[in-house]
Amino acid sequence: MPYANRIAGGRLPGEAPLAPYPGEVHSLHGVGWRRAWRVIERESHYAVLGLQHRADQDWPFDLDATLTIVLGDASLKQTLCVTNTGTRAMPLGMGFHPFFPAAPGQGTTLGANWSGRWGVTPDHLPVGLAPQAVVPGPVDVGPWQVNNCHTGWDGRAVLAYPQHTLVMTADPLCRFLQCYRPAADSAFVAIEPVTHVPNAHQLRAAGVADTGLIDLAPGAVRSISMTMQVLRHVDG
Q1: Which of 33, 66, 111, 123 could join 158 via S-S bond, C-beta 3.0 to 4.6 A?
Q2: Distance of alpha carbon 120 from alpha carbon 150, whole angstroms
């Protein structure tokens, strides 16, 4: 928040260049993950965090954000809400970036439905959207190496482990699923519900349709939610 993944070279159309993420040539993931949030409210099973951002070299628009976290007996729900507190429309993107254990030989599989898949350049930018039929069955995450954005996601992903299954569901605004596992021997996988394709700002400026960017008017509000439910296997 206020965008997911990368903007190539930090070049936000119509604005001064954004500061690149340290060690990167691109700007990365916006400001939400790099700023201190304040605790607005908290109880034993939930918390509400808040962030006020004012235009700077990392993001040239004013916004307020809240993140609500609710714990159940075997579930976690997060709701991210962004308000445009500035005087001009803001190109908004949002997403979640959960990491999950996925070591080789662990027996982890991913089940998810999508309709297309963006290729990726060596510097992690999307290129060449290709139609992709619904995945015929769970993907074995063990040998998977991936950093791709999947389009037409139906909002549900299932990670199955030998002892339990994790079911992720996300808001309909999250029509894109970014999957990230940097190497075949990585011990984790990131399954990321997001509202737009990486580098959406430049892609839209180049005439690419359906990038998922939201033009948020002054005073307007958008929110997304993600729920994760753990189902423990019962030995039969």
Answers
A1: 111
A2: 11
The b-or-e profile of 52-85 (16+ CB within 10 A means b, else e) is: ebeeeebbbbbbebbbbebeeeeebbbbbbbbbb
- Going by pLDDT thresholds of 50, 70 and 90, the confidence category of residue 138 is confident
* CB of 213 closer than 8 Å to CB of 95: no
Segment 143-186, tens digit of pLDDT: 889 999 999 999 999 999 999 999 999 999 999 999 999 998 99
Q: Please count the residues of the chain.
A: 236
Domain boundaries, the chain: 6-232
Q: What token pair was written down for 96?
A: 């979640």
Cα separations (Å) of 215 from 29, 181, 206? 18, 30, 17
The predicted-structure confidence for 84-103, as pLDDT tens digits, reads as follows 999 999 999 999 999 999 98
Predicted TM-score (pTM) above 0.85: yes
Residue 9 DSSP SS3: helix
pLDDT in tens, 35-94: 999 999 999 999 999 999 999 999 999 999 999 999 999 999 999 999 999 999 999 999
Is-contact 98 180, C-beta < 8 A?
no
Per-residue pLDDT at 235: 67
- Residue listed under structure tokens 């990491």: 99
CATH number of 6-232: 2.70.98.10
| Residues in Cβ contact with 125 at an 8 Å cutoff, skipping those fewer than 6 apart | 6, 8, 26, 198, 199
| Structure confidence by residue, pLDDT tens digits, 224-236 | 999 999 998 876 4
